[in-house]
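hi! just following up on the protien thing from before. the input was this:
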Amino acid sequence: MPTIRRFLDALLLGVFLPDKVTFAINTHISERWWLKPFLGLSQVFRMDPTHPLSLKDLIHHLQKDSKTVIFPEGRLTETGSLMKIYDGPGLVAEKSGAKVLPIRFEGTQYSHFSKLRNIVRLRLFPKITMHILPPATIPEHRELTGKNRRKLSGHILADIMTDMMFKTSHYQQSIFSCLLEARAIHGGSHVIAEDLERNPVTYDQVVTRTLALSSLLNAMTQPGEYVGVMLPNSTKTLYVVLALQYLKRIPAMLNFSTGAAGMVSACQIAQVNTVLTSRKFIEMAKLELEAELLSQQTRLVYLEDLAASLSWQDKLKALCLAKTTDIWYDRDADKSDAPAVVLFTSGSEGLPKGVVLSHSNVLANHQQVAARISFTPQDVVLNYLPMFHSFGFTVATLLPVMAGMKVFFYPTPLHYAVIPEIAYEISATILFGTNTFFAAYAKKSTPV
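and the predicted 3d structure came back as:
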């Protein structure tokens, strides 16, 4: 059972599957003019998924020695992700005892035969990959009848399909490699991030500034070193995180809300000797005392000083490197199981505890979310969760960047009256948070 996601999918199935197959197609869809010329090229089983007798006929057909392609979504996707999985195909697979062979085509959504025009960036010859997973079965549940049996079979089929989406995703890579892959998919000029300074940045700008910053950080840190990051949500913090990962340093995201004692303890746990921060941030957040105490244990490096030391030659070199990553950057050298970030608990039950996440940990989380929720490059994420928070870092910050969505960084989730206005102003379509925050925003938002 493949997902029918593009016009090309059915044609590719007919060409590349080794045996003759029958396509089970919705009767209404089979009447469309653009599909009729292709129906004569293969065997077609017309069915009405809402009609019980039609489903019974399909069950009898599958009980014969045949190979039949069923599209459980029942339509072409308009998001590029899984859409609704109907219960009918699951019930048919259960009652017929047929093996379910999950098949996914990846890349056809970027062709000009796709229905995703104006949603994703289309191109002439995208790379297309056909994924075929091991066959699965939907066990019989004779103890259930009617709607309950149908619903359970549909749930099992939906689990099979979402599991297919995750297993066929490319999460065994580094975060920087994933960034370059996202740029190749969505285009270097695609706007990807913005903050309160209101200067939207593109993939090309993110990669260029990341490489420029990495040239400065390289001299003051060592490969494999844990480097503290005490910065608010902003595009600059994004550059810092990506630059450290490009250099194979591990950012240790310090929770500045825990105060000096919590941050000093976190630095001791992760053996952090250098902390990257900003004078402007320390002043605005009134963290002067915390910064003073932290500086007694570690070396504080200010972004303002790094920016002042960046010459035009450094900027030109970074621009050239960013334009030629396909030539010099060795993605195979990246280890997906290497540490990518250290996040710390709040310390509410004692000293903060450090949690090390690998690159594949972070990217697997992205794919698990994407297997269940449809995202498109047209979505806009408002991220007010601090990057030292697990959800704020992995999903609210990196997921949009790696998936082609625009993310707007806001420094705190506690501005209950401001955040709904920001969401309205930037036309945000996605917010990540807790029910406590959402309830507070709903109370403070301006009634229509």
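Residues 8-167 form one domain.
The longest strand covers residues 339-344.
cheers
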